[in-house]
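Standup notes, protein team

Yesterday: finished cleaning the Rothia aeria F0474 set.
Today: General stress protein 14 structure.
Blockers: none.

Input for General stress protein 14:
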Amino acid sequence: MKTLVIVTHPNIHDSMVSKTWVHMLRQHPDRFTVHELYSEYPDGVIDVAREQALVEEHQNIVLQFPVYWFNCPPLLKQWCDDVLTYGWAYGSKGKAFENKKLGIAVSLGAPASEYSAEGSVGYTVAETLRPFELTANYISANYQPLFTFHTIDTHENYDEAAAQLVADSAGDYLAHLNTYYA
């Protein structure tokens, strides 16, 4: 049962976390199909039929992205708008996600303590990203627990200790995938 990981990072080459996670996923091609939206669609024009076929070929779907302004990068929002069509993803004949697991894996540039009622965000990550859970429910997917990694927000603070935390996060991410998408 292979998992499609839809990676959406507008500048993955400069990413610390997403690039590390993609490298880890690519070490398991028998288990994961890594699909990088910004690499596939640099012009922003999504091939809807191709994307729908890719989803249909997999039992598990993970949306992997850095959180941008309490949401996903714009191309992933466009992917949802374009690909999750009536009659395919939802509606009386829309069964594409029925009995499929769907979840998200995100990196955030703020400490976990900021994503709480007492923190500067005022909400948990799950509350902030609730639209993904609502979408999963609406398209009859089996929404899985979030995978989150809180990291540094600037490259200036990226030292050996930060690099180790990012490397450790890749192992944690793999363990999460093994638990929920096996």
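Follow-up from PR in the comments: The mean pLDDT is 95.
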